[in-house]
Amino acid sequence: MGHKVRIQELPGIGKRYDAEAGAPGQRVSVVVRGNGIRDLYVFTSDSPDPDAVLELTEEQALRIGAILSGTFFTS
Amino acid sequence: MPHNELLVFGALMLTAGLLARFGRRVGLPTVPFFMAAGVLLGPGTPGPVLIEDPESLHLLAVLGLVLLLFQLGVEFPVKQVLSSGRRLFTAAACYIGLNIGAGLAFGFLLGWGTGEALVVGGALGISSSAIAIKILIELRRLTNAETPVILGIIVIEDLFLAFYLALIQPVLSDASSPTDLVVQIITGFGFLALLFVLARFGARLIGAVINSREDELLTILMVGLVALVAGLSEELGVSEAIGALMIGLVVSRTSVRERVERLVLPLRDAFAAAFFVYFGLGINVADLPAVAVPALLAVVMTVVTNLTAGVIAGRLHGFNQRATANIGLTVLGRGEFSLILVTLALGAGLDPRLGPFVALYVLVLAVLSPLMASGSRYLARVLPDSLLVSNWRYVREETIGTSCSHLDQVVVTEPDGRECAECARVGATWVHLRLCTACGTVACCDDSVNKHAGAHFRESGHPIVQSIEPGEDWRYCYVDAMLVREPAGGGREPERG
User: Is the ipTM of this complex over 0.90?
Assistant: First the structure.
């Protein structure tokens, strides 16, 4: 387990990953479901309600992940 | 009325699917809509009758029931249940105890008979995992602090379902004499014991029988095995439901588990829908008014017991009003298990009023539960502090702070040794000893000179330590900087001993 990422099992659904993102209270939570769908929760304040939630298919998630990790680019 | 079986089946499934899709648009669960399609198009309702004799769907429906339970067995998270904390177990036990207890009481008050009461107890007491999970996803609550607790309760409830099915088995068997019954119970338990042994020791053998590198063959072998074991159970007087569940558990221990999980899903979805439609076909609308009052009372009772159980779970976990309201109102839906229980009961010749009663109950709750879950904040506003205050602490980041999220990493609870190995190596002494619950390392506390337990956390990232001093049983999470369980006497500041 990475130092800044928390992992939590969600029985019956999948796994939840929390990562801090910049300012206090800002974080991204990703839930990877058993069927491959990723739920992306974005929190930008201390409010317990997420500011945005995206439901990504495995393919969409992989593409976005590739962009974020810098391995996907075109000239 | 058309006579072509294919035409009838197609029309039924399409209607069920379209109705359910309409329901999904407004956030309602699917199962009641499949059932409603059956009710609307069945022989018991005025209007178009697609199918005069529902029995022609019987085999498909039974396959649906069997696959539902098989899939439950395959996916059953045994490890997660065993490693869930004592608090979660207590919360789940309260939830199950309250709901089943109230359900049983309600069943006996109905006065339909003892067997009927047991079935009603299970049908009102066991919630629908599918409905609760869909609610959590749709209301965007997957990352809430209370969500792991809700999921934990559901999982433990699934385990309980297996026990309950076995428990009420004598009621569901169609024995004619007491001797018959005894013989059935003995053969039944013998068969169950055999399946247990198979699950324990024979998983490799079963894996070898059905394993194939080709998905096509694995699917066919899997369906064959499930149907065979379920049918065999039925022959031996154990219900096909238990047989399917048990063989699912066996398969979950084989190397093909993950592929079976994936392959069984579409099959289960199609056949389970056929099962729900079939259940609906057997319901006569004219029977509904007679059971309307009890069904509505049962709905009210379920809401009350769920809220009570939610408050207990919230109190145990130190949650705030909002999380507590969410727990109570999310696990409200009833669906597949209630219908399965009643189908088994009707098959055993119990009181036919069970059918319309549970059908109406499931329908009303299906509409009510998503509405109530999404409106949980109104309940949160009126929940008094005094209900939850036992060990409630204000934590700023309530979604991640109020409950430690690392309990799943507790693996070791018994220390191998009673000395700090690092200290012993350099000949130093220590004050108190802590056990790393992730890897079992025993190290000295932060009051000791060398503070090896803290150093171990910084090196390894293992979050939770447990005191192994005599008479102490608390755990401390370094990452969340909180006591995971209050020490005896409670309410102290986290102690980094």
Answer: no
